[in-house]
Amino acid sequence: MSTGLDKQSSTLRFEAIAMFQRLEKNYRVSSWELHGLHIWPILRIKIGHEIARRGLASSEQVVDRPPMEKLRMLTWGLQEYLVTKRNLAATDVAFLGSYSHEVAMENRPYNRFFEPLLEEELTQQLHTTYLQYGYKEAMRCNKGAFDQLFGTMSLHVFAQLGLKVGRKRMAEDWWKDFLLLPDVEVVFEKLQEQLELSSSTLKKYVLSSFNIHLRSQQYGKLFKDLKPKVLVCLYFYGNDGLAAVYAAKRQGILTVDMQHGPLRNATYSAWYNVPSKGFNVFPDIFWTWDKNSSQNLSDWTRETAHAVVIGGNPWVEYWRDLRGDVAARTKNSGVSKVLYTIQPLTTIQLFFDELIDCIRSRDDLMWVVRLHPRQDAAQIQEIEKHLTAKGVWDKVELESALSSPLPLSLSSSSVHLTNYSGTAIEASILGVKTILLHDRGAKVYSDLVKQKQALVLDTGNSLNELLDEILDTPTVTHNSHSISPSQVLLDLVKQAHA
Q1: Beta carbons of 475 and 431 less than 8 angstroms apart
Q2: In degrees rounded to 5, what are phi and psi of residue 413?
Q3: Architecture of the 1-312+483-498 domain
């Protein structure tokens, strides 16, 4: 069986992680610093993402902003920086996230990881601030359950006004200083030879650390005003996350990264030589959803200054109590729902022949295709056209990721399908078994496969066989122990006070 995805890219990802470990063991990469900023973790993360993208034809398109949109961004940024920032109050917890982590709820954007934490008891004890990056998102966002909201893109808009002239020279100086670090030449030779990375690509990633350095200065000024005790972020390994974590740690603020997807990748896995005090762009604490995810991090953090806590998935815990009622109603309906959570890949990759044949032949199943937040209108139309041409459009229901809560949709499902999405973890927490359609998923979720919470579609079986195997097995709720994410957050704030 083949989904049309390039399996060589999946193998290369794990080979890259092994190579990173060899470099960390044999060379002084972990000591690389510029102006106090650790460079190697940034470089490794960027390269890891580059490798992960190879062979995966994405539907996403990078579109340059038109002049009027750039002008609106500048106007908004100045207003946000000069007016909103001035009125920010000191806070207990600063949350850093983006619109991609939000769903529509109660007729407004709702951060599905952060806002479930803000129960009435917690909001009475803590003052909270939502720091949202991305100017469009911050412009339309409602502060919701948070005490205050600030769009961090305004920091960069304001800072860049004074850096246009000197930025290029400063970046070149940064690059020249980097080349003087120990073992750079030999490490770059190996990266170019074994991972097929060009010298220009490597330079680009080194200069991204310069960008992070500049952003950290702006976050540092913001944190001096906010005085948070704890910074909780999603996607710490993006430029904003790395900059914010670095700035917060320099001020003694406890930093936490909350899991938002699978952790078996070059960012979270298999770091070999971490400095005794930890990397200063890595959070103090990694908040994980479950024991499997926690173990993946504990394997390398155990002897470092970084710690791991199992705090649960706030969004899943929020909906967990509905699991039994929804499952019972679905069973009584006599129809088994198959939920397919897709990713921004090409339509042909997502809907391969065996899947199409299965949808066409299984009248006993209701097929729900859950769109990824980054699926654009053009591809949605393309999906409809493709499924119509295959004669199965009337058998499929499309579900928006922004309008329908994932835990609720999973709870009403008998089977979950995905290529390698982190929804496999969330499904396992709710007791829904997953069929992994790609070998990358089999490697990323090997623990779930061993625990029989996930099955793998390969040449030795068929999709129909796997569906029947799951449907014939009684549903048993997995990871049924209760976790209170809100209490975990309160404990972290107390830890920061200690």
Answers
A1: yes
A2: -105, 145
A3: 3-Layer(aba) Sandwich (3.40)
* HSE toward the beta carbon, residue 409, CA cutoff 13 A: 24
pLDDT per residue over 298-311, tens digit each? Answer: 999 998 999 999 99
Following DSSP, what letter does each residue of 358-376 receive, concatenated?
HHHH-TTEEEEEEPPTT--
For residue 197, the 8-state DSSP code is -
Task: Label residue 81 by pLDDT band (50, 70, 90).
Answer: confident
Q: What is the DSSP letter of 345?
A: B
- Please state the pTM of the whole predicted model: 0.88
Given a contact cutoff of 8 angstroms between Cβ atoms, the answer to whether 355 and 463 are in contact is: yes
Angle, helices 463-471 vs 353-361, to 10°: value is 50
State how far the Cα of 361 lies from the Cα of 490, in Å rounded to an integer. 51
Q: Return the DSSP state at 479.
A: S
- Asked whether this chain's domains 1-312+483-498 and 318-471 adopt the same fold, the reply is yes
Distance (Å, whole) CA 132 – CA 146: 12
Domains of the chain, by residue range, sit at 1-312+483-498, 318-471
Q: How far is CA 380 from CA 92, 360, 370, 384, 404, in A?
A: 42, 20, 11, 6, 17
Q: What CATH number is given for 318-471 in this structure?
A: 3.40.50.2000
pLDDT digits (tens, 9 = 90+) for 429-466: 989 999 999 888 888 899 999 999 999 999 889 999 99
Cα(21)–Cα(274) distance, integer angstroms: 11
Lowest-pLDDT range of 170-174, 197-201, 323-327, 345-349: 323-327
CA atoms within a 13 Å half-sphere pointing along the CA-CB vector of 348:
6
Q: Please give the C-alpha separations between residue 387 and each of 16, 345, 349, 357, 462, in angstroms, as whole numbers.
A: 36, 15, 13, 11, 21
What is the Cα–Cα distance from 463 to 260, expressed in whole angstroms? Answer: 28
pLDDT at 433: 96
